[in-house]
Design a protein that fits this description.
Blueprint (H helix, E strand, L loop, with lengths): L5 H14 L21 H18 L5 H16 L1 E9 L4 E9 L4 E4 L11 E2 L12 H8 L3 E3 L11 H10 L6 E7 L5 E11 L6 E2 L3 H28 L1 H10 L7 H5 L1
Antiparallel strand pairs: 1-2, 1-7, 2-3, 2-4, 5-6, 6-7, 7-8
Helix pairs in contact: 2-3, 2-6, 3-6, 6-7
């Protein structure tokens, strides 16, 4: 990665100042945004330490809404993402938004403090029971894989129509995406973590997510999935009827050792 000239740095900082605090601003992709950000060992170790600390905090969390808020805030912070969403798997075999946050638009949906998301859930299967994987979150669920997409507007492999509609309504510009399945320690996927618009740690501009960002997000998603599974099982002990519904909503199989152990 080449060193930036002084005039390029000053121009970039001015762009950041101009857009700071303006609701609906369009993040700018700069000529160097396609270049990989060199990993700083000290920075990466610090972010890994933060992931471990969050994992410890999650083990004490007893509220699913707070769990979503904690994991999304941590994932956005460690990956330097402007926006993030956690989808949960429903009994209707869809992905429904459990929480959504977009900092630059001051959007906070679902969780414990935000209003419900008005958009329809993402279907995982068609009427003939065939998997639908054109959406990035659905693809991550069906194929049990993480996706790192540099720019949603140039990618041709997925359907980003919902993203573009969101951008059209808000004036936003969704660019880079990191999508990670939330898989517990029984290899059951109970949700999907989606981050978008990674920020360069120095320049502040929108850039693709790095391999290190993916590593950290996968670790957080796994820890959250394990804790979510445990909370749903605790709910089952407290209220067998209600929690059995939660278990289905959480996509936890009745064949799971967790279920059989109770």
């Amino acid at each position: 990665m080449r060193a930036l000239r002084k005039d390029e740095i000053e121009a970039a900082l001015e762009n950041v100042r101009e857009s700071d605090g303006v609701v609906g601003f369009t993040p700018r992709l700069h000529p160097w945004s396609h270049l990989e950000i060199p990993a700083d060992p000290a920075d990466l170790n610090e972010r890994r330490r933060q992931v471990i600390e969050v994992g410890v905090a999650l083990s004490a969390e007893t509220n699913i809404g707070h769990l979503f808020e904690t994991i999304l805030a941590a994932a956005k912070h460690t990956a330097r993402a402007d926006s993030g969403t956690i989808y949960r798997v429903t009994a209707e075999r869809t992905l429904k938004i459990g929480i959504m946050r977009t900092d630059s638009l001051d959007i906070a949906m679902c969780g414990t403090s935000g209003p419900e998301m008005p958009s329809a859930p993402i279907p995982l299967y068609d009427k003939d029971d065939n998997p639908i994987d054109s959406n990035v979150a659905a693809y991550a669920y069906h194929h049990d894989t993480s996706l790192n997409i540099a720019d949603a507007y140039t990618d041709e492999g997925f359907d980003f129509s919902l993203t573009r509609e969101f951008d059209r309504r808000t004036g936003y510009r969704s660019s880079s995406f990191l999508v990670v399945p939330m898989k517990n320690d029984e290899n059951e996927i109970v949700g999907v973590l989606q981050l978008s618009n990674a920020r360069h740690p120095v320049m502040g501009e929108v850039v693709p997510f790095s391999d290190e960002d993916r590593e950290l997000a996968e670790s957080l998603a796994s820890r959250a999935a394990v804790r979510l599974t445990h909370l749903l099982l605790i709910n089952r002990l407290q209220d067998p009827f209600e929690s059995s519904i939660s278990l289905v909503n959480g996509n936890i199989s009745h064949k799971s050792p967790y279920w059989r152990a109770l």
